[in-house]
Design brief:
AA_ABC_transptr_permease_3TM
């Protein structure tokens, strides 16, 4: 317990850093994922191409390489932001590709007749998607969206290598202070476990309330 009690503020700072990264990157991933899923099922060909390219590139790019591209590449084009914001952009964009595919699979489970009925009532594509298709699709994709955001929380550990305050990065300071690396990692793992179990609990409640009965 000495590792935790004597360095509680350090652990707390890292824990809060990981929570902030997870929350902000999750919000960005959900917004971009929804947008790209809409593009992938849109009747406009150029939108479908954009959505496909976005998903294909990001899903097949290592996250570490994406961090290098964002944190080291964007400043060369004059975009200078705090490293934490760069990390949010990298994590959010990367995860949005997976959210997009999850949402698209949910959209494909909605019978085509639902969309045809909406269009027969005079609804356009945006109205059909937002008021008819997505509410039904959302109910079937709650568990996989939760799993994707749990993966995002764990992927945030990469940010520590780029001078971003987060939980895993605390082991460097603890190691320099001479604390046992094993116990340092045990308490770091406990912190990640708290975050992931919290996300899991939230999505379990959502699934029980809105999920599709199997």
């Amino acid at each position: 317990m000495d590792v935790l009690t004597e360095n509680f503020s350090l652990y707390g700072k890292g824990f809060l850093g990981t929570v902030e990264l997870t929350v902000y990157a999750s919000a960005l991933a959900l917004v971009l994922g929804f947008l790209m899923a809409s593009f992938r099922v849109a009747p406009v060909g150029s939108f479908r191409v954009l959505g496909t390219v976005w998903v294909t590139v990001l899903r097949n790019t290592p996250l570490t390489l994406l961090f290098f591209a964002v944190l080291l590449g964007l400043p060369r084009f004059g975009l200078v932001l705090p490293f934490q914001l760069f990390a949010v952009i990298a994590l959010g964009c990367y995860t949005s590709a997976f959210i997009c595919e999850v949402l698209r699979s949910g959209i494909n489970t909605v019978p085509k007749g639902q969309g045809e009925a909406a269009r027969s009532l005079g609804m356009n594509f945006g109205q059909t998607l937002s008021t008819v298709v997505l509410p039904q699709a959302f109910r079937s994709v709650i568990p996989p969206v939760g799993s994707t955001l749990i993966a995002l929380a764990k992927n945030s550990a990469i940010a520590g290598a780029f001078s971003v305050t987060e939980l895993l990065g605390t082991y460097k300071t603890l190691n320099e202070l001479g604390y046992s690396i094993i116990w340092s990692f045990i308490w770091i793992a406990a912190g990640y476990l708290i975050i992931t179990l919290t996300i899991s609990a939230v999505f379990n409640v959502m699934e029980k309330r809105w999920g599709v009965a199997r």
